[in-house]
What does this fold into?
Amino acid sequence: MSDPCRKEGDIARHDERIKIQDEILSSLSKAVEKLNITLSSISTVMTDNKHLHEDQKRNEQSINELFRRVRCLELAPGKAAGKAWWLFFGSATGCVGGVISGVIVWFVTRS
It folds into this structure.
C-alpha cells in the first residue's frame, strides 16, 4: 500500500500543475482574443484600402478625361485662328491680285 503522505504531495503537485495549465490556457485564450481583434482590424483596413484604391482609379480616369477636354479647348482657339489666318491670307491675296489686274488693265487701256 502507498504512503498517504506521499499521495498528498502528488495531489498537491498535480493541483499545482493544473493551476499552471489553467493560467497558461487563460493567457492563450486572451492572446487568441487579441489576435482575433487584430485580424478584424486588419481586415477592416484592407477593405478600406481596396475602396480607396478603387476611388483613386476612378479619380485618375476622371482627371485624365478632364485634362483631355482641357487640351481640346486649348487647341481650339489655335485651330480657329489658323482658319482665320488662311481666310485673311486668301482675301489679301485676292485683293492684291485685283489691284495688279486693275493696274495692268489701266496700262493696257491707256496705251
